[in-house]
Structure formats: C-alpha cells, structure tokens
Specification:
single chain; 124 residues; mainly beta; 7-stranded mixed β-sheet; 4-stranded antiparallel β-sheet
Length: 124
C-alpha cells in the first residue's frame, strides 16, 4: 500500500531553518505530483508548495515564496521542503501529499495520498 512518511519537524527559534523530508513507497513516485500542505493551529489545512513529476516545475503559496524550497529525489523516492528564515506564523503540522492522476493543483481534493504530518513549531 502507499505510504508517505514525513520527518524533520521540530521546535526552533524564529530565523532558523528546517528541512522536511517525505519518503514515499508503494506508488510510481517519478510519475506522481508531490506537494506540501500545512495546518496552523485552529485553521484549515492550506497548500504550501508543489513539484511536478520531473521536478522541473514548482508552485508556491505567496506566503512562502522565496522562503521555502521544494525539491525531490526520484532515485530515492523522497520529496523535501527546505524552510528558511522561519517565523512564528509558520507554526503548523506539515503534511506531504501525492497526486498520481497527472494534475498539479493546490486543492486538497486532488491528492489521493497523505502522510501523517510532522509538527513544526517556531517561537519568537
């Protein structure tokens, strides 16, 4: 079965960096769009960044553009989210998600598979 396992979250100070990883198994990873979403405390889950099957195309929410970088390693079936200059408002549970249908969207409904999430807490 498909598994997405996130790692790399933690508690950091404002201005610090973290790199999240999502290891995928049970799917044709190099044919799958991968994205990161996050759910801040008391809020809805929101799109953060997405990357196309080859890694050539990326999308970002305006709130993280220039601050976060999404990348993937198709040889290792891993997608990354490099987060720099973290702010308290980046505090959230971060989820990776997979869309194997060929789309490249920002809406949750497009994504068939989800990880369990990893907590990122940024203190000021």
């Amino acid at each position: 079965q498909v598994q997405l396992v996130e790692s790399g979250g933690g508690s950091v100070q404002a201005g610090d960096s973290l790199r999240l990883s999502c290891a995928a198994s049970g799917l044709a990873f190099s044919s799958t769009v991968m994205s990161w979403f996050r759910q801040p405390p008391g809020k809805e889950r929101e799109f953060v960044a997405g990357i196309s099957q080859s890694g050539m195309l990326t999308k970002y929410d305006d709130s993280v553009r220039g601050q976060f970088t999404i990348s993937r390693d198709n040889a290792r079936n891993i997608v990354y989210l490099q987060m720099n200059s973290l702010k308290p408002e980046d505090t959230a549970v971060y989820y990776c998600a997979a869309d194997s249908t060929g789309g490249f969207g920002r809406t949750e409904a497009r994504y068939e598979y989800w990880g369990q999430g990893t907590q990122v807490t940024v203190s000021s």
